[in-house]
Amino acid sequence: MASILDYLDWRGDITFAERPFNEVDNLLLAELSYLDFGGIVPTDFAASVPLSDAAADFTKRTPHAEMGVLVPDKIPDMARRMAASARFRDVLLSGYVCKLNEQTETQFAALCAALGVLCLLTPWHIAMTGVCLLGLAAVLTACHALRGETGKRWRRLLWSLTALGMAILFGAMGFIAYDGRDTAPEEDIPFVVVLGAQTHGDRPSRTLRERLDRAAEYLNAHPAARVTVTGGQGADETQTEASVMTAYLLEKGIAPERITEETKARTTRENLINSKALAEAQGVPTGQVLIITSEFHLSRAKFIARSLGMEPYGLGSTTTPWILKVNYELREVFSYVKARWQAG
Q: Are the beta carbons of 290 and 314 closer than 8 angstroms?
């Protein structure tokens, strides 16, 4: 495919008097804006310098110009070829303005770091977002420290690894969101599990309440269904998650005989292992399981259920506000990797 450099070979010897200015000429001149002509091109429009002289001075001052990660390295060579062509060598440059501000770049890294620390310190459970912001701040700081020709390759490597990591991370988040869709069949499933989450005293947290509201909706629509609520007592909790879940479902009108408590589990894997054992002890078939949890959690929960020999279905509750959902999906990427490792 032809490039703008090929255009120079093809039209470089044709002056503007012979062929008028066109879109490709405009693109070539726009590319020149990436070059640092500070001290070479006048800053006002009262004076000017020919492109041929500007390119020669730029090459003399910066024989090995570094264009950064996102800007093509061919631009300095393009400028030299333009300066040597009959079409562009007499083009006059003036009114130079430099918009590059290294102080702003440093301030952006500091802003990312400050936001990251704030996320870690707030009680809103958005620590994973904070970790990612701190990581971005570290990359920006490292790239700023690696200025100059000697650090060029390291900066490229660092940005390439960062871009690859972000692509993998966002791709995994997309998979988790896609796999977290509702998959509950029309017919009743004997084995229904609601996964626990943090509690505040004798009340469920917002996330847990959203899960329980979804469970109550399903149980009211399926009167014959029974449910296992699962969750032990965390270090910062005054009672088991399962007991809080039971009390909430009773308030929603679910009969107590339809609810089984599992009060020992501390992880999603333990939730499902212990709930499966309880159901089997009660004579409930566990070949299929309907898991009710937050949508960001559903993909991993279904994977763990499959690794335990069950065919999983899912109902996911909506997580609000959206920043919590994004943070939890970020966290789920790493939790999913851990779950796969534990499953062998």
A: yes
Question: Residue type at 157?
Answer: L
Structure tokens at 220: 């009211």
Interatomic CA distance for residues 230 and 243, integer angstroms = 9
Task: For 194-251, write each residue's pLDDT tens digit.
Answer: 999 999 999 999 999 999 999 999 999 999 899 999 999 998 899 999 999 999 999 9
Please give the structure tokens belonging to residue 245. Answer: 């879940």
Q: What is the 3-state secondary structure (H, E, C) of 179-234?
A: HCCCCCCCCCCCCEEEECCCEECCEECHHHHHHHHHHHHHHHHCCCCCEEEECCCC
* Closest C-alpha among 36, 51, 45 to residue 88: 51
With both helix axes pointing from N to C terminus, report the angle between 152-179 and 295-307 in degrees, rounded to the nearest 10. Answer: 80
| Structure tokens given for 289 | 């399981």
1-18 exposure pattern, b = at least 16 Cβ within 10 A, e = fewer: eeeeeebbeebbeeeeee
Q: Is 81 exposed, middle or buried (0-12, 13-18, 19+ CB in 10 A)?
A: middle
In this structure, the number of other CB atoms found within 10 A of the CB of residue 106 comes to 13
This prediction has a pTM of 0.71
Name, in order, each residue with C-beta under 8 angstroms of 260's C-beta and a sequence gap of 6 or more. 226, 227, 228, 229, 278, 279, 282
In this structure, what is the dihedral angle of CA atoms 268, 273, 275, 279, given to the nearest 10 degrees?
Answer: 160
Q: What is the pLDDT of residues 279-311, one digit of tens each?
A: 999 999 999 999 999 999 999 999 999 999 999
Please state which of the ranges 123-132, 226-235, 330-339 shows the lowest mean pLDDT: 123-132
- Written in H, E and C, the secondary structure of 267-329 is CHHHHHHHHHHHHHHCCCCCCEEEEEEEHHHHHHHHHHHHHCCCEEEEEEECCCCHHHHHHHH
Tokens of 284: 């409930």
Q: Looking at the DSSP assignment, which residues form a beta bridge with residue 289? A: 312
User: What is the C-alpha separation between 30 and 19, in angstroms, rounded?
Assistant: 19
The answer to whether the beta carbons of residues 232 and 265 sit under 8 Å apart is: yes
Cβ atoms of 67 and 73 closer than 8 Å: yes
